[in-house]
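Dock flavin-adenine dinucleotide; give full complex structure.
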Amino acid sequence: MDFEDTPEEAEYRAHVRALLEEHSAELVHMDTGEEGAAEGPEQELALRRTQRVLAEAGLVGVAWAREHGGRAGTLAQQSIVHQELARARVPGLINHIGLGMCAPTVIAHGTPAQHEKYLQRLLRADDVWCQLFSEPASGSDLAALRTTAVREGDGWVVNGQKVWTTLAHVADFGILLTRTDPAKPKHAGLTMFVVDMHAPGVEVRPLKQMGGQSNFNEVFFTDVHIPDTERLGEPGEGWRVALTTLLNERVAVGGGGTDLGLSVESLARLAAERVPGLSPERQVLARQALGRAAVAALANRYTGYRRYTAISQGGLPGPEASAGKLAGTASAKLIADLGVRLQGDDAVFLSGADDRWQRTMATLPGLAIAGGTDEVLRNIVGERVLGLPPEPREDKHRPFNEKAAAGPGTGRAAEPANTARTDAPGAMA
Amino acid sequence: MNFDLDTDQRDAAAGAKDFFAGQASPADARRALDGSPVAPGRAALAEVGFLGITVPESAGGAGAGVLDLAVVAEQAGAVLAGPSLVTAARAAVLLADHPDLLAALADGSRGFAVLDGPVGGSAPSLDARDADTFLALDGGALVVGEGEVTSGAPIDATRGLGSVRLTSSRVLVEDAGALWARARQVGAVVLAAEDLGAAGRAVQMGVDYAQMRTAFGRKIGSYQAVKHSLVDAWVGVEQLRSLVWWAAWAADAAPGELPLAASAAKAFAAETLERAAETVIQVHGGVGFTWEHDAHLYWRRAKVDRLLLGDEAEHLDAVAALVLDGALTR
Ligand SMILES: Cc1cc2nc3c(=O)[nH]c(=O)nc-3n(C[C@H](O)[C@H](O)[C@H](O)COP(=O)(O)OP(=O)(O)OC[C@H]3O[C@@H](n4cnc5c(N)ncnc54)[C@H](O)[C@@H]3O)c2cc1C
């Protein structure tokens, strides 16, 4: 057990730090806990440029294989880059979904031609990617999705709707999960594609989130043609392909133990400024809350280090990462809550001297939903890690297009029980 | 970076698990409530070498680190063993310059207890009931002496809690404030390690039962109210494990981080064990509320340990003080 950098790691860290200083003027810097949000065309361009500069400096895809445009580095190096980016106040990369979820899926299931065509450009944010999984009637129960792809000539024709698609408004490509065989049980009839977001028939409508930002979208597909060469994996194998995405999602979102939302260090700085000015009674309360938030963040951070050690020793990212997202969400809430309360009178406004806190607060409910809701993650941990008996899943083996017997008085098909995101990690873990 | 136990530590944990499985159990903890001696007891712990893990080899110990002790303490906690390895850990720090006493600690020929609070009447202190040699802080000096123990009806008899009035004492170390503080932090880490073991075992008992018990035609573990509360308790245990290992590592390798890590671990341990113990009772329903069931013994441990060596409020405040002082932002 050792938390210090090895001499090689220390050397690498110094190298990264020097690169970040050298390129500082070309990078976006911001002190928010938000990911590079791409609000407005100017910010989008700046964020794309930031990622390109970092990619050219060799700081994106550090642990990827060289054949995919990476540096064949270690996970330790990857995490050093993350730490140094945070230290230099460079926001999350615009292509975080592409890097965290789409690329691993393309790498695992794509053809050499797809690797060639996409990966290098994805690394440089020449193309930004999105993940087109959720639909109005299938979020947790992802495998109940209804967007169809029908074989036609040398390709497929896609019709349907996706929703909550982060970054679709700026994306160039997406990984798209569709139903290609409705006569099969719901997991068996799915197929994954890479879709060109600029293709005719793709329409993106931004949605406004509760905090006012527009980071996710509805995406409509009307007779969109996708060449068969853009299929990821075999027809009917879409679920297996999606599992790769979902496993990586759990690690990308919170599984690594990094603070989601604003960091505990930002809270520490704020508290050092504000707590001494409070009344003695309020100081006691604020110190308890600060202690609790710091302990939660540290527990999660060190748990991330353990997971990361396990993965770097050859383990697969498993369902344990879901526990990291649960704990990370809880700790992010403790951090933001105290940060907001320390804003004094400003705390009732979404604006103020240091409104990062209020703005972050308004993103956190989404954290407990995106990438698997807290409830679904608890199901995953309960069943896949603790071995508790599964949820009832009445529709798991029934052909998708065969409705369940209507319950008394409902007059419509029974709601499909969840499976999708709940089933996800287990199949590989 | 490498945040995992090494092979020796894994082996030590496995060995400790075997040892404790034959030597202590919740049933012993139940019998202790009726006045039976605490199991495995000082002699057995001395014989297997666990009282001397952090005692230098020159004084008959193993000369190992706090992390090595913590992995053993986890196994002790899992079966509610006593006396606590906290006492051994704390005394080993305090007696660093007193080889004779260290040797008596490691070989069990003396029963030590470390007293918190005034020497004229200490706070209820771990393992005081069966001790013959008391260590205390008296006006800034570390003293050793004999004393008179008073005690109440125990909630958790395995903890051997008693208040002590020193009847004789001699100074071991003048100006022992810093030494005392470090010993208390190491003690907090080892207590958190015992709580980790107890919490992990409690959650496992709940999981086992939820897999087997049926209600309304389904295993109760398939009900989310049951499943999710077990998951929350388990997530707490895994998070606690990280804090315990970090804190124990810090005690050995990064003393500057120990105050923060020890308080974080102790505060989190209090909450985690309490939740695990309450969950295991609830998951068992009526049988979990019986004297014969083991659940309440973990609950008793939780209700007592959360108050020992500083309660949650004290340690959260200590964390806050360090954070405000720049512990995370330097
Ligand atoms: C900020 C944000 C960004 C997102 N980005 C993307 C994206 O880029 N791409 C994408 O494809 N999707 C994205 N999503 C969608 C996200 O994956 C879904 O919202 C999520 O999986 C939940 O699905 P749902 O919204 O349909 O809610 P539902 O599944 O309808 O859930 C409603 C409620 O029911 C509960 N519930 C459902 N099933 C169970 C069960 N089995 N047991 C217990 N409770 C259950 C849920 O926990 C929740 O509380 C994003 C969502 C958010 C909030």
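Observed: The radius of gyration of chain B is 19 Å.
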